[in-house]
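Practice set, problem 2.
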Amino acid sequence: MRLSRAAGTVYGLAVACGEVLRAADTRHDMATKKTAAPKKAATKAMTKGNLILAIADAVGEGLTKKQVRSVLESLITIGHAELKKAGLFTLPGFAKFRVTKKPATKARQGVNPFTKQPQTFAAKPASKSVRARPIKAIKTAVA
């Protein structure tokens, strides 16, 4: 095995000092595996029970967990009824919920982009979905 001039010099100095260098010490490891940065612990979303407990603790001795649960259930019920009736529900300081209506689509002929074969795309019925739009107060709280 031939040593390069720089490696020979280092090897020669090591031998002169009475030390023995291994081959790994005399060359650079260019193909070293990069270590991945440690992953952050995934924060879990707050559950309904945790939310009730947090509200009860924030209010203090004034409300029990059972009372907070009933208030939260009534808020949900009122929100669902309002969305069904008016199509719009605002939760002050948080978000504005709105029902969007998607019209039905007819069956149509088209071309499958992968196989380039003609195909019929199925009809879809009309549908409704709920969209939530954040209110300015929550945008500034998060920012």
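Problem 2, part (b): a different protein.
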Amino acid sequence: MRKRKGIPKLRIKARIPSKTMEKDLIGKAKLLRDDPELIIPECVADCGFCPFRKTRVQLERISRFKDDPAKLAKLARRGDKLARAYAATIGLVHKEKMPYLATATYPGGTVAYALRGKTTKEKLIGVQNFDSPKWRVLSVVDLVQKKGLHFYSYGDKFICTGRIAKPPEDYVRSASESVGASRMEGDSYLCPHNPLSSNHIEFDWVSSGKKVILCDQCAGKAKNSLRKLGEGMAVPRVIDEFRISVGRPLRDPAGSNECGDLLNAPVDKDLLSQYSEGRLGDKELIDKHMEEVRERLADVQKRVFVRGDRCFGDDLEAFVKDISDDPTETESLKGLLSNVTHPVVVDSGDSVNKILATYWSDHGKEALRAVVSEQLADKFYGDGELAGDSPIKVIRLATQQAGLDLASSKIPKYAGLSVYGQFADAVARSFKTKGQTAAVAVLDAEKSSDHRIRSMAHAFYLALGIGTKSWKFTDEEKAYGAHLEVFAKGLLESRSSDDHHKSLVEFLQQAGSVEEVRKI
């Protein structure tokens, strides 16, 4: 069976036009009926040929039948495809009721059009939207692909420069302003934020001799500036019209200029391809490019430290101080980075934990050794139970343990203590090695009915600043405890091993215990 000729099957969506859309489309069809030249680009180059010469002949013929809907329907199915779209469009003037509208989606958005005649949807969209700089270029995309022509659409202008890329200055200015680069300096269109002094994306528009430069803040507002710049262009390859680069200038507080062009590198071709296809936006391009630049720096044997737009050369001390003033964080960072031999580049907003995490697998043990003993560092770095914890948490746990170990080392060990000595020792040891919460837990757990122990407990509560437990004690126990408070406080606040021992002996003597307190 022969395939039925006719309109090719397209995956389209249809919609009933609103009164406003119907009125707008009919209005444009009437304008085209009286002036077919509205769909023909203006030629500003001496090409030696004109692809629209035959089209113009057919448009003139169609115009003679503009009041004959039957003839227009026939002309919409043969001849030049642009002329067919013209015949189909002006034929809408004779329709009592507007047909369903089809919609097509492109990177620049979704557009509605009347699907009539036998031609391409691009021709129909371009003709029916001849007043739209963005959509009318669709009517010539076949000429771009077949003949390598260049078209520029802006305002009420539709320009053809033949096989030479030569965008009009007004188009360059209009396109630059559309992405936020409205300030002109020399041969460059700049965004308002002095982009050359910060991270920026630069479009060197080769054929125009101009540049468009956006800071990362402005670039982040546009999904894809390349698409926006080329929105009114119909050229063989938009990406070939530009040389795209990403810049990250660095300030050197010391003035040594050690960083130079450290972060300046060509953008990878694969990234540019994804960007030109719309799979990446400006921000993604900048971020992925900088990520690749950082990865390449791993092979550069040079100690340089960069944070945001500031280069510290090989001054690790100044670099770390610029990040944090917390002693534990700064010392662990210095330990972490002391053996890194390639450039270290971090964003100004990167947290200490993020920086630690970046180098933890290779240098985490050095970070720990900078703040705790080698034995503790090895223990916490190799602890499998902490594998899922953040580096900063591991460091905090290690320093906490180091503190407890230090406090414990200053507390003598005793043998043969009475129940009174054991109770006082347990409270003091818990407080010094685990903190107030642990000491209170020991006190709360003590259920003795011995008045001396209860008076000692009341004294410790008072020394810890806890006055809400007094209801548990008799008046005699409270009075005795108040007397012992100063001695309990002296024991808890003692620092050296000798002071601890003396304070414990004195506390027990004041509590009425005459036992001999012997250190091991």
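Answer key, part (b): The longest strand covers residues 101-106. The CA atoms of residues 313 and 402 lie 34 Å apart.
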